[in-house]
Amino acid sequence: MEALSRYESLVDDFEAFVESCQRPLPTTVRVSTIKGDVDRTVRAFEDEGIEVERRDWHPGVLEVDTSKPGNTWPYVHGWVHGQEEVSAIPAAVLAPAPGDVVFDPCAAPGSKTTQLAAEIEDRGLVVANDDNLGRLSALRGNCDRLGITCAAVTNRDARHVSLDDFGGVDAFDGAVVDVPCTCEGTIRKNPDALESAGRQSSRQMAKLQTAILRRAIDLTRAGGTVVYSTCTFAPEENEGVVDAVLGDGDVELVPFEIGLEHDDGITDWLDESYDDSLRHAKRFYPHQNDTGGFFTAKLEVRG
Amino acid sequence: MRQNVGHEFDRLPATDAEREVEGRPSRQAVVDWWADRFGVDSSVFDEYTFWEKGKGKVWALPFDLDPPVPVESLGMKFIRTRQEHWKPTTDAVQRFGGHATRNVIDLDPDDAAAFVAGDTTEPEWDGDWGYLVVRHEIAGAPEPIGVGLYVHHELRSMVPKGRQRDFRES
Description:
The structure holds two protein chains of two kinds. Chain A folds into two domains: 239 residues, Rossmann fold (3-Layer(aba) Sandwich), CATH 3.40.50; 58 residues, Sun protein, domain 3 (Alpha-Beta Plaits, 2-Layer Sandwich). Chain A is 27% helix and 22% strand. Helices cover 16% and strands 28% of the residues of chain B. The interface between A and B is large, with 38 and 33 residues.
């Protein structure tokens, strides 16, 4: 937990924060409404003797009292996807409409892709890219099981994706850019998540994250929305990256509502200061909602 | 005639008369197969384009793109063609099998558990031999589990290994 000490000035109740980081996570699933229905899924779990608790902020997110939701009928039918609660935030914030063309540049293993497909009611196109060929099979497997027809899977470097593969598509309507990060916020399920954490690794990671976010912005139409997210606490990878792309002048940071406890994004960190609008971003700490840690910012592409 | 290019997704022709690639099924033939075999109303697929990648594998996408599309996967693997008996995929039957009105078999809980574990069962069936939509009742309504092949008075489970589960108490 030593690596978290640099956040003592950021987090109001630092003791509760550290204590929460040491507890295991509850098991949650998201109901995929392409084949599934929330009420019917709850009933099917309960018929199997599994207790279910619904989350208020998102009707499809359920806490289930089993460590193996993959070993149930609702899973076999492709009604549910095992997904950490905060990982359901970015696609819900983008909230694309049926018929939209949506981009998920860092897609594997597919939690965001499959949620985006459900958001557009499986009508339109979700371009799901990942540079890691080995992780594509998990992405494809999840799309298959959840009955998704609207996804196209590509295997490119997210910094250099082009629309050349998709004749007839000029630009994306929206994107969820959930970048590779130091993953400090996953400490509750990955005990070694903090091993390589620190300012140096975060600064290194930020270069890649900025390039991926820039590319997604370039490919999104004027008036479209790009949601940037990470599962780390590090401001260098969060506000720092968003601040860098705001400086390009192509996007602005916009406010969004979500029914989860959070802190606003920060505008000062060590020797750096970020654009005032970064307070519209949101930081989710583990002790606030009994989840992993997460960061989300909503960007609108200028006309 | 053009060639079938194995690593790209190419559009199915609308009808057999517009075919440019030898042996390629038409969109019409694919949609008709679901109507003939399972009674699925063709309008269910109105928004869909159909694509071939690899010989005979047909994919369904609810979007219109200019062919060819050189990607890893495009939409849902829908049906296997270019063979005597076309075979629907588990994914397609789970997704669209709810619209089926014939060649649908409902299993009791024991047979459903055996079927999803990959085992052959002997349920009562006096209909056609061939591929069936296999359902069971869950949370108050029937739901497709996958594809079964009914031959010689037995129902063989076509549930792929990675999708099989054994819910039976040992």
